[in-house]
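Subject: Protein entry, chain in single-letter code together with its fold tokens

Category: Structural biology, sequence-to-fold work with a learned token vocabulary.

Notation: Tokens come from a learned vocabulary of local backbone shapes, not from coordinates.

Start of record: The labelled sequence and token lines come straight after this line.
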Amino acid sequence: MEQGLAVRSLTVKNAAELSAMLLALSSKYVRFFYPFEFDLETVSDVLSRQGEDAFIGLYWMDRIIGFFMLRGWNDGYEVPTFGIIIDEQYRGYGLEMVSLDTAKTICRLRGAESIMLKMHPDNISAKGVLRKIGFIQTGVEPVTGNIIYHMEIGRRAASSERS
């Protein structure tokens, strides 16, 4: 049994635990997070077809407590879309930043210069946080009304983060 925090790539073998975590979250908490259905069959299908996209789990003491994804590479996009959900009881420990920093590293290793995030316009609490950490609003998705944000993460952006 692992005795701490671990960040691991998810495979179809992790579908049951990811599905269970997502289904256990309150509907109010996940109301703005709907990348796919959370049932086992759908999660298994998504993980089995991830290809170039990345699905990463955050584990505490061998229990999945959150995950993030970088999607769009399978469809030929150069800029991946970042999506994240952390188990409600583990919010406030900095796991969102661990996830974002890991996502940025994965993107840089794959040659991506920026990362995209879409946010529901009613997710007011996240708007200020996104600006504070470097995301810039770049548009609105016409079909959903979601706000589109981008963050530069290329090597130049990485060196200015270290300064």
Summary: The mean pLDDT is 90.
